[in-house]
Design brief:
By secondary structure, the protein is α+β, with helices and mostly antiparallel strands. The protein is built from 6 helices and 5 strands; from the N terminus they run αβαααααββββ. The chain has one domain. 41% of the residues lie in helices and 30% in strands. It has a 5-stranded antiparallel beta sheet with strand order 1-5-4-3-2, sandwiched between helices. β3 and β4 form a beta hairpin. α1 runs parallel beside α5. The chain starts with a helix and ends with a strand. About 5% of the residues have low confidence.
């Protein structure tokens, strides 16, 4: 399961482009708060801006080359063979799903408020990261979103934000 998580993380990270919107978090518990600006912009964020909210392909390649043996490591080889356009389409599909759920629930994104963030550390060999659940509210209704981050240069970099649902009490 951990290997699958980190392969997924590396896949996602591999296909993002340079981002000036990327927010790095010093502590795991800050990742959720630092993801809130992305959600708050969903009413008007473009595909490109959403993609640029995540870590860069260059940073991932540098990270993989430092942490993993590139000659024998299956994950490294798979990262090198991935198609950037297919990944970008997947990220845009996640954005479209977030926007669609927002419409379904009547969420005005710039009016949401942070509630809480819980996470589980994920470690596989030299790769560290987290999977988390970000809670936010709109008009007193609490919603959750899933997110993932990876540790690069001792800071948490957001990989993806997805899957909005009403939080069950």
């Amino acid at each position: 399961m951990k290997k699958l998580f980190f392969f997924y993380v590396l896949v996602i990270v591999t296909f993002t482009t340079y981002s000036q919107n990327l927010t790095l978090s010093e502590k795991a518990e800050d990742v959720g708060k630092n993801a809130m600006p992305i959600l708050k912009q969903l009413d008007h964020i473009s595909d490109k801006e959403f993609i640029h909210s995540f870590i860069t392909i260059e940073k991932l390649k540098e990270f993989v080359s430092k942490k993993l043996d590139s000659t024998n490591n299956e994950v490294t080889q798979q990262v090198q063979q991935m198609d950037i356009e297919k990944y970008r389409k997947k990220v845009v599909d996640e954005l479209d799903e977030l926007k669609e759920k927002g419409k379904e629930y009547g969420i005005i994104w710039n009016a949401i408020e942070y509630v809480d963030f819980s996470y589980n550390d994920q470690t596989s060999g030299p790769i560290k990261g987290l999977t988390g659940k970000l809670l936010f509210k709109h008009k007193e209704i609490v919603y959750r979103s899933k997110l993932e981050a990876i540790v690069i240069d001792e800071k948490y970099a957001l990989i993806i934000l997805r899957n909005i649902q009403k939080e069950e009490k």
